[in-house]
Amino acid sequence: MFVEDDESHLIWFSGVETDPLSFKLTGVLCALAIYNNVLVDFPFPLAFYKKILNQSLSLDDLDELSPTEARLYFF
C-alpha cells in the first residue's frame, strides 16, 4: 500500500493496486487516532498534504520525497 523511500525515509503510495477497503481502513485508523488525541507518526511528505488541499506541486516537493530522482530534473 505504501513504500518508504530509502533516502528520505518518507512514505508514498506503492503504485501496486490495493483494495480500496485498505485505504478506507487506514483513513479510519488515522481518524480514530486524531479523535482520541493519540499522536501517530505518519511520515508523509508535504506533497501529500498539498494534494489533499488541491494545491500545486513543484520540483521542491519531489526533492523532499526522493532527492535522488529530483537531482535528475535539476540539471
UniProtKB/TrEMBL annotation:
Keywords recorded for this protein, A-Z: Repeat, Ubl conjugation pathway
A GO MF term: ubiquitin protein ligase activity
Record lineage: Eukaryota, Metazoa, Ecdysozoa, Nematoda, Chromadorea
Protein's name according to its UniProt entry: HECT domain-containing protein
Domain (HECT) ranges: 23-75
A GO biological-process term: protein ubiquitination
GO CC term (a single one): cytoplasm
Record InterPro entries: HECT_dom, Hect_E3_ubiquitin_ligase, Ub-ligase/GTPase-reg
UniProt keyword Repeat, yes or no: yes
Signal sequence residues: none
Matching Pfam families: HECT
